[in-house]
Specification:
Blueprint lengths: L1 H21 L12 H4 L1 E8 L8 E11 L5 E9 L4 E10 L8 E5 L13 E8 L5 E5 L6 E5 L6 H13 L8 E2 L5
Antiparallel strand pairs: 1-2, 1-8, 1-9, 2-3, 3-4, 4-5, 5-6, 6-7, 7-8
């Protein structure tokens, strides 16, 4: 039994060290934003597929409005297969008073559930154009990624450069899907 422990403990330590080395580094975010300037309509240019947008076929937008309490009202909209538009209303808040204000949390659950930590999802602005013409939003686990822009379409060179930087941050950009828009 003693020899088994001597072999097992070093093996477990090696597996643990390998796991730590293989883990993604912390996700860097944009240094800070002017929340008032971030408000308005953003068009989804592309995203990593996710369960809560399965029904969305095109014309995906996110509209943000600054509230009196410093939070953002959020309205996500998209067109469904049958042609109807669907809207989801929520709220976003700064994740930590220590900042940065580019680490947000968003909630689409009813307000009375807002005290539950699990109803808040990460919304981290990992990149923002200096002129606020595009924004790249992701989650620290790299499971979710959205490329947003102020217009429905983005030029190919900008889009390709954003994808390359997102891949460098650990996102699986091979799975990113473009979003169609009417205009």
């Amino acid at each position: 039994m003693g020899s088994t422990r001597r072999v097992t403990l070093p093996a477990l330590l090696l597996v643990g060290i390998a796991h730590v080395l293989a883990a993604e580094p912390p996700l860097a975010v944009a240094p800070g934003i002017d929340l008032a300037r971030y408000t308005g309509v953003w068009y989804e240019v592309a995203r990593l597929p996710n369960r809560f947008q399965r029904q969305c076929v095109d014309n995906v937008t996110a509209t943000y409005q600054l509230r009196d309490d410093g939070r953002l009202s959020v309205i996500n909209a998209c067109r469904l297969i049958g042609g109807d538009m669907e809207r989801a209303e929520g709220v976003a808040r700064i994740a930590s008073a220590e900042g940065p204000n580019t680490r947000l949390e968003v909630r689409f659950a009813p307000a009375w559930l807002g005290w539950l930590p699990m109803v808040w999802g990460d919304y981290w602005i990992v990149e923002l154009a200096p002129d606020y013409s595009y924004s790249v939003v992701g989650t620290p686990n790299r499971k979710y990624l959205w490329i947003l822009a102020r217009s429905p379409h983005m030029d190919e060179s900008t889009y390709s450069a954003i994808l390359a930087r997102a891949a460098g941050k650990g996102f699986d950009t091979s799975r990113v899907q473009l979003t169609e828009h009417d205009r």
